[in-house]
Write the structure tokens for this entry.
Amino acid sequence: MDIYNSGGPEVSIRSLKKDSMKFVLTNTDLSVANALRRVMIAEVPTMAIDMVEIETNSTVLTDEFIAHRLGMIPLTSFDVDRIQYTRDCTCTLYCPNCSVELTLHVKVNVDYDDMNDPTIDKTRQVTALDLISSDESVKPVSDDKAHPILIVKMRPGQELKLKCIAKKGVAKEHAKWSPVYGISFEYDPYNRLRHSHYWIEEDEKLEWGVSANAAEETPVDPNEPFDYNAKPDKYYIEVETSGCMKPEEVALRAMTIMQDKLGGLQIKLDDEFKEDTQRWGY
Amino acid sequence: MSTSVSRMDEDQIEVDTGKVSVVPGTMIEPQCATFCLQDEDHTLGNALRWALMKNSEVDFASYSIPHPSEARTNVRIQTSDNTTAADAMYKGLDDLADLCDHVIQAFQAELAKGEFEYEEEENAF
């Protein structure tokens, strides 16, 4: 098939860490590499807190402020396939099939003995670790137990009691559902194709150094004529996840989602043309 | 006033929930058509355009997003007499899905080989 120019795309993983992966995609078009990047950012489903029912809040932060902060907390989503989208679920609002409940109850008691001792830190930090999940597979990402995600700081006498409903979603709807914190995407580090136009003071070479990826390509000879037919075919991609799922899983799921989209469109196309054969002339 | 309201109700066009449709008036003959893809954007549009152009029977293929606040993409295809726009579209979708499959397999093979810098997980999920 002509879509595979000489063997089709190749993947070469350079490094794989707990929450980041560097890989090189070669022998394919920029549009395919960009589709992969876009799907990883915006269409891989994860879990995130979507509804918050606040029972008591006497902290310094307002209810909506806390609800917003809760929404931003990444939740482990490696088992997200098991959970349905709420819009596809048969329930009216939410149910265990399409949501996970997390509760939080922190009350800081007043200790009258320590009250006037300035050397004692009486601030209680409410963190993501205080959230109790009803589902073992969906809980706040907590890789660094010493520095958990801070929700609010409380002083003695204050109380926070709430229930969160985490739902499955994609970042196309809200960025809190994005499994990635950042993706770096580079091709043609020497700017051989002149896709980049650098803003310079005096000297381009001095002001714009080449990236680490340039080590894999041959430098441009200043005397060589510009090849206007050249196309990019080597893409350096680094995915950094929020910790909600493994980076290699994000990439694999992204491609599967792309396939599902294409398959769905084929079915719809078939339906469209079956409905009214004459209209289309065959 | 009341008559105009009732008229609107009668004439109300049925909302098209289909994901793929042919833009009315764009299919003068089977070899050309503009397809409207509901809820799709540059992610699919640009890659699909490329896959279509790879088909030697396709004379012209392009995509556009008519308005940024409407979630739809238009794909225009013109083909030679050997095929039809709809068949070219079908083949384009098929080819791109095959390509995705190829990338998945390449990825899995690379993961299985394990020839990369690897940092062991401290605490698994």
In short: The longest helix of chain B spans residues 85-113. The longest strand of chain B covers residues 72-79.
